[in-house]
Amino acid sequence: MAQQVTPRFKKTRKQRVADRINKSAVKRAKRPGNDLDYLKKIKRLPCIITGRRDSIDPHHLKCMGGRGMGMKAPDEYLVPLQRMTHSELEELGSKNEEDYFFTNGVDCKKLAKELYLMRCNFPDMEAVWQKHWDNKPKILKQK
Question: Model confidence over 115-129: pLDDT tens digits?
């Protein structure tokens, strides 16, 4: 008689991945200040440093506080950055975060606060982004 092989997992790989995504979404939603819809809206905005719209990663400002050891800051402290710019900023470390934005002509704290206040209306968020983009020195925009 052939021996029956029991599967290693009771669920398919696709089901396990879906469960993992759902668990992380629930865990994320439990923390105060996290809003998945707001996160999606931030991803639709252009990068505040380069102005490009492709591959946007929301950056959680570490200089604003609101986080614990090994935790991200709440979503109310988000700014849109292009993936390469985001990686560059992460390599610099949290202590140099404000200096990085300052040298690129962006008041990151003010931008994050204003974007979060307009989170219910995407056109208003775009207007806030545009205002901050227009206030950047012209030399920095041409990078």
Answer: 999 988 999 999 999
